[in-house]
Design a protein that fits this description.
With 359 residues, the protein is an alpha/beta fold. The chain is 36% helix and 15% strand. The chain has an eight-stranded parallel β-sheet. Helix 3 runs parallel beside helix 4 and helix 5 packs parallel to helix 6. It is globular, with a radius of gyration of 19 Å.
């Protein structure tokens, strides 16, 4: 079985569990994936709400919560633990500093270009930096800026295609356009990265993400040049996922027609499972226009029909009448809730079967 090396880190299997906020991927899910030889990822989004008992200050609570989740993941896991920190978060800098000081293995960062990410590293830092991008151009900009400003190159790159769940780095009219498909973009990003690898003699693995659901999908991405894959949706319907049972069950119950593109208050399209809450939003019911958290830089409360972090927090707790579940395009294929071990075993078996079968 192929391994995935990111700098001096080596994952026994080339699978990264996608970071899913608010509260969907915490230490429980991340440690379970890490223990199976993959890379487990804690999402930093919304931790200020989950850990409000730690501090009335949202940013401070989020940082204390992140420390706590990293500590818990380390207690439970022997493998590689990463943190996903969106550039769009208002407390981005604080969360990055906390992750670096806690010596987390990897920071994954998207939802904007993390152009200053290397500036947070100290001389003795061990944390690897992995930007999440949606185009070859974004990779080029990041590599050039990081190299020129910090003499640093990404330790890996995640290319997230338009079939991912949650916020998407594409315009709505690009989501079904074949030119923006993962299969189309992946070879372009691999080629872009190869230029910097050759020029600076540094290995930069490309990780494919967005809509990858089966072992057959994994093989297809590896054949196109990916060194590994990132999956989010597949890990929601697991025993160890940190979400409520009702959240997981919404994946099991979803039909293909229930997966929809929504306009998020943060100004990006998102993919979610239809809920009574989203139906209410569409019918024009407005929520109170106050912003208690100021959690996302691009969220304009004067034009937002609801508070996104509250809606996602409600869904995490199982109150789907007051929120909604983000999900990838294949969430409707979820049939049952199983362990992380079973999920990874299934993916590996499917992959091996595809490797052995004639093309």
């Amino acid at each position: 079985m192929k391994t995935l090396s990111i700098g001096d880190l080596k994952a026994r299997i080339p699978i990264i569990q996608g970071g899913m906020g608010v509260g969907i991927s915490l230490s429980g899910l991340a440690s379970a994936v890490a223990n199976e030889g993959g890379i487990g990822v804690i999402s930093a989004a919304g931790l200020g709400l989950l850990y409000k008992k730690f501090s009335p200050n949202y940013t401070e609570a989020g940082n204390l919560g992140l420390k706590e989740e990293i500590r818990k993941a380390r207690e439970k896991a022997k493998g590689i633990i990463g943190v996903n920190i969106m550039v769009a978060l208002s407390d981005f800098a604080e969360l990055v500093k906390t992750s670096v000081s806690e010596k987390v293995d990897i920071i994954f960062s998207g939802a904007g270009l993390p152009l200053d990410l290397p500036s947070f590293l100290k001389k003795d830092s061990v944390t690897k930096l992995v930007p999440i991008v949606s185009s070859p151009r974004a990779v080029r900009i990041i590599c050039e800026k990081w190299k020129n400003n910090y003499d640093y190159l990404p330790d890996a790159v995640v290319l997230e295609g338009p079939k991912a769940g949650g916020h998407l780095g594409y315009k709505e009219n690009q989501l079904e356009d074949a030119h923006f498909s993962l299969e189309e973009l992946l070879p372009q990003v691999v080629q872009e990265v190869a230029f910097f690898e050759e020029k600076y003699n540094k290995r930069i693995p490309v990780i494919a993400a967005g809509g990858i659901y089966t072992g057959e999908d994994i093989k297809r991405m590896m054949d196109l040049g990916a060194s590994g894959v990132q999956l989010g949706t597949r890990f929601v319907a697991t025993d160890e996922c940190d979400a409520s049972d009702a959240f997981k069950e919404s994946y099991v119950q979803a039909e293909e027609a229930d997966i929809e593109i929504i306009k998020s208050p943060v100004g990006m399209p998102g993919r979610a499972i239809r809920s009574s809450f989203l139906d209410k939003v569409k019918s024009g019911l407005k929520q109170p226009k106050s912003c208690p958290f100021n959690c996302i830089k691009t969220c304009d409360i004067s034009r937002s029909p609801y508070c996104i972090v509250t809606a996602l927090y409600n869904a995490f707790r199982g109150k789907l009448d007051q929120g909604y579940a983000f999900a990838g395009s294949n969430a409707w294929r979820t049939e049952r809730i199983m362990s992380v071990k079973e999920t990874i075993q299934e993916l590996m078996d499917e992959w091996r079967a595809k490797e052995k079968s004639p093309a």
